[in-house]
Amino acid sequence: MAQVEDSVVRFGILGCASIARKVSRAILLTQGACLYALGSRSLAKAKEFAAANNFPPEAKIYGSYEEVLADKAVDAVYIPLPTSLHLEWVLKAIERKKHILLEKPPALNVEELDKMLKGCEKNGLQLMDATMWMHHPRAAKVKDILHDKEAFGDLKEVHVLFSFRAPDEFLKNNIRVKPDLDSLGALGDLGWYCARAALWAFDFELPQSVTALPGVCFNEAGVIMDCAATFTWNNGQAASFRCSFQSCMTMKVIMQGTNGAIELDDFVIPYTEDIATFKFHCDASFVDKSLGWICKHQEHEVKTSTPQEALMVGNFTKLVRGIRDGSTTADHKWPDMTRKTQQLLDAVKLSIEKHFCTIYL
Amino acid sequence: MAQVEDSVVRFGILGCASIARKVSRAILLTQGACLYALGSRSLAKAKEFAAANNFPPEAKIYGSYEEVLADKAVDAVYIPLPTSLHLEWVLKAIERKKHILLEKPPALNVEELDKMLKGCEKNGLQLMDATMWMHHPRAAKVKDILHDKEAFGDLKEVHVLFSFRAPDEFLKNNIRVKPDLDSLGALGDLGWYCARAALWAFDFELPQSVTALPGVCFNEAGVIMDCAATFTWNNGQAASFRCSFQSCMTMKVIMQGTNGAIELDDFVIPYTEDIATFKFHCDASFVDKSLGWICKHQEHEVKTSTPQEALMVGNFTKLVRGIRDGSTTADHKWPDMTRKTQQLLDAVKLSIEKHFCTIYL
């Protein structure tokens, strides 16, 4: 066993996914966390990945995922495997009593997810999905304004766009276009963030209805490349989103209140690590004869010395440490958010399958 | 008959609607046009309006709409009456051989509109709806970029938001909340601009399908206060919009191409008369490990010494003069746009009535 302080949370990573490079770095940046183990089906690939990503020399590099889970020193695993493998490896991780930081989408559907959540619940394990933006202090600052009844008023609508134009190589070979790997395609990859943003804005109250919009694009294998959906709440609130592998990179969320509106142009990944911005406008009125209009525009800057993914790892690490030392139990807040987001994706998918009929939750 | 140059196009205005203040000023600003007559059911109100809006002293002020139409010197009428009165007064204007600048929405439905268009066609009269923003040079500049296959790529999606928070007085008394006046409510008033923007972006190709989104809000009289819809084209292109009297003022259009995106924050009425802006971003890419992303942001400024409503009056005036002097005939381009936009509103309304089912055009 590598020598690490007892208070440190030891992470094992399953697989060498591209996103694991970012999260490895985040673990390295997190006080009280250490990059303890990495497993890949190819030991050579794991060694190469570890070397390229500044794993400490004492890190355990394994030629299988099983060995990471079998390592008793591992407290928590980060699982960036294709979604179709999540259920298997999350359940195996639970058997080995590992806390789980899980790449999104966490599951192919809520039935799968519930098996994972039940296992975590039974074993007192923390599960958190790797939706990084929620951990950025910008999210908290935006929330303050969303709850400001005077400046913002009541939230009426949320619009979310997350797209990027996938290059030919991606459209041919990426796991997110393969029905046996990430069969939710753009919905699972990008729509996850959109659904989460809508839920988050509405304080995680589930909408009453979910309706996919006509005009879905599939690839030849039947995987969603572009789709859109709308959510409604009983009190006249609504959200809609579009996610696409087919149009230029856009990560926009617009939140419309009765008095003001908030807009983020880079909500998933801030343009830069240290400063994230958002726009707020309010108090609009027409000038005489409606020849023009004025409103108060504010651009807010939120600085952070720690990137959002390291803040996420930090929050997860604190929870794991608390559970390990017996001072707390697993925080339901995180799996609850995960489950609600998965419910929305399931409903969008079902609505698409049912020719865009409205699904009532 | 007031003395005006023979080459000048003489406008008569039916009614003293608030928007007529803006258009009266636009007529005054237009070379070759003159504010020749005004009619209201109340002569006193007409006189007051004329005095407050710089009508020339020789302008004819009538105590009825009929008298404006009966005045043979009037070349063209501007009709800002409630929509439910359009059919009657447009047909009467056609009888009197007046060209027609018509406030939007032009009609309660396309059947009504077709009666108007047929009358204009038969009599060689020009009809133009008063959608002002299309005449701003910003629109042409945006169109140049939309057609730039390298910078913008192919247009994939359009998102339009037009809302304002109507004060209580508006929600009680405005014609746009009355089922017997402007029964299309927010859809006719705001949705008109949204549907037009989507059509305009897609070069007026009608979509294949129109679907209203669940979550429509009606007032007690059954008039739409808030609604949303989506349009799809067969080649995977889509547009969606939301229009609302219930959330803060927003006039946003986002056009997403494969390579770039264009965004206007004030597409209906520019913040200021002399400069309108729009944003363009393209060439987005992630930095290493997706720790951030970069793209080229441009803010374009388009200046105009003539406000968009005066440019509209100018374009209409030129057409009328050309028809009057026999050098041209009525330009079908404008009523064609009007009809397609009305078709979309009709389809949205029908989709709402049919519980949000998809309407195929």
Question: What does this 3D model show about the protein?
Answer:
Two copies of one chain form a homodimer. Chain A is α/β, with parallel strands linked by helices. Chain A has two domains: 9-132 and 309-331, Rossmann fold (3-Layer(aba) Sandwich), CATH 3.40.50; 137-306 and 342-360, Dihydrodipicolinate Reductase, domain 2, CATH 3.30.360. The first copy, chain A, has ten helices and 16 strands. Chain A has helices spanning 18-28, 43-52, 65-70, 86-95, 110-123, 137-146, 168-173, 185-201, 308-324, 333-353; strands at 9-14, 33-39, 60-62, 76-79, 99-102, 127-129, 155-163, 209-212, 217-218, 224-232, 238-244, 250-257, 260-264, 275-286, 293-303, 359-360. In chain A, α1 crosses α9, α4 packs parallel to α5 and α8 crosses α10. The longest helix of chain A has 21 residues, at 333-353. The N and C termini of chain A lie far apart (48 Å). At the A-B interface, α1, β7, β10, β11 and β12 of A face α1, β7, β10, β11 and β12 of B.
Number of H- or I-type helical stretches of chain A: 10
Structural class of chain A: alpha/beta
Strand content of chain A: 25-35%
Q: Return the CATH class of the largest domain in chain A.
A: Alpha Beta
> CATH-wise, what's the superfamily of the largest domain in chain A?
Dihydrodipicolinate Reductase, domain 2
Which parts of chain A are unreliable, with pLDDT below 50 for 5 consecutive residues or more?
A: none
How many separate structural domains of chain A?
2
How many DSSP-defined strands of chain A? 16
- The succession of helices and strands of chain A, N to C, reads EHEHEHEHEHEHEHHEEEEEEEEHHE
Q: What is the quaternary state of this protein?
A: homodimer
Most extensive interface, chain pair and sizes: A-B, 63 and 63 residues
Largest sheet of chain A: 10 strands, mixed
Mean pLDDT of chain A: 96
Looking at the overall shape, the CATH architecture of the largest domain in chain A is 2-Layer Sandwich
CATH topology group of the largest domain in chain A: Dihydrodipicolinate Reductase, domain 2
- Computed over alpha carbons, the radius of gyration of chain A is 21 Å
